[in-house]
């Protein structure tokens, strides 16, 4: 942003020497402040839309078997707790969760809107799925109807086969309690987390690892629309990626 002030000041100097320099600097500073307000406002809007879509889809997934149980409602509340939502945020999250459960809820339209928000930031998509999986696997098991709905959501968001494989690995990790120890993570699952085959070279594995770590870096995602409340989820995702990479390295010696 300082470059904007500098350029404005130099233009002012070229036009009006010292007085122009001062006026240009002031105008440049005003422009920077205006841009900052616009950018912050746009980011806040993206974060609000991202949260709304996340919780409404969670609501739709909770009725994948045709009804919403009290356990599923408690699971949603547990997710809200985990995200440290304040009073107003929690009320909005509940409203979105209930909206997703309605018979007339247009899941495809909601996914299209979310896809627009995410854009090329695939790491945001991983955080979205992380939240869904926490809610789905709260009781340690996932019904087939829930798996089918999850894959429907993934297809609606334009997930590639590679991303679908990673999603399956995330689901397995969620239902097995997380698998935080490298030695406890199945090698096949570690390859799925990184989106590579067991035949991949060491260089290909490292390249996939670095790409995923870059895509899922919490600071980068925060600048692209991830709400602060989801930072913990992003950190958990990067931990899973690191564990998978270390598990593969361990197996390869």
UniProtKB/TrEMBL annotation:
It comes from the Bacteria. Residues 189-253 form the J domain. It holds the Pfam family DnaJ. Residues 217-253 are annotated as: Disordered. The chain crosses the membrane at residues 6-32. Keywords: Chaperone, Membrane, Transmembrane, Transmembrane helix. SMART domains: DnaJ (SM00271). InterPro entries: DjlA_DnaK_co-chaperone, DjlA_N, DnaJ_domain, J_dom_sf, TerB-like. This is Molecular chaperone DjlA. The keyword Metal-binding does not apply. Residues 229-238 have a biased composition (Basic and acidic residues).
């Amino acid at each position: 942003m300082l470059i904007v002030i500098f350029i404005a000041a130099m233009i002012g100097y070229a036009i009006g020497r010292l007085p122009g320099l001062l006026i240009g600097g002031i105008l440049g500073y005003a422009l920077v402040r205006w841009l900052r307000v616009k950018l912050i406002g746009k980011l806040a809007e993206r974060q609000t839309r991202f949260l709304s879509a996340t919780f409404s889809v969670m609501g739709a997934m909770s009725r994948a078997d045709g009804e919403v149980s009290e356990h599923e409602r408690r699971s949603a509340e547990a997710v809200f707790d985990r995200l440290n939502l304040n009073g107003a945020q929690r009320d909005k999250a509940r409203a979105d969760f209930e909206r997703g459960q309605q018979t007339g809820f247009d899941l495809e339209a909601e996914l299209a809107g979310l896809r627009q928000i995410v854009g090329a930031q695939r790491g945001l998509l991983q955080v979205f799925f992380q939240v869904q999986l926490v809610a789905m696997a709260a009781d340690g098991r996932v019904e087939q109807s829930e798996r089918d709905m999850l894959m429907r959501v993934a297809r609606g968001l334009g997930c590639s086969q590679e991303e679908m494989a990673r999603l399956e690995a995330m689901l397995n990790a969620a239902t097995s309690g997380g698998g935080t120890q490298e030695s406890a993570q199945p090698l096949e699952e570690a390859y799925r987390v990184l989106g590579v085959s067991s035949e991949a070279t060491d260089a290909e594995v490292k390249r996939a690892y670095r790409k995923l770590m870059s895509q899922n870096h919490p600071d980068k995602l925060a600048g692209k629309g991830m709400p602060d409340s989801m930072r913990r989820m992003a950190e958990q995702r990067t931990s899973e990626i690191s564990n998978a990479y270390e598990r593969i390295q361990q197996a390869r010696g």
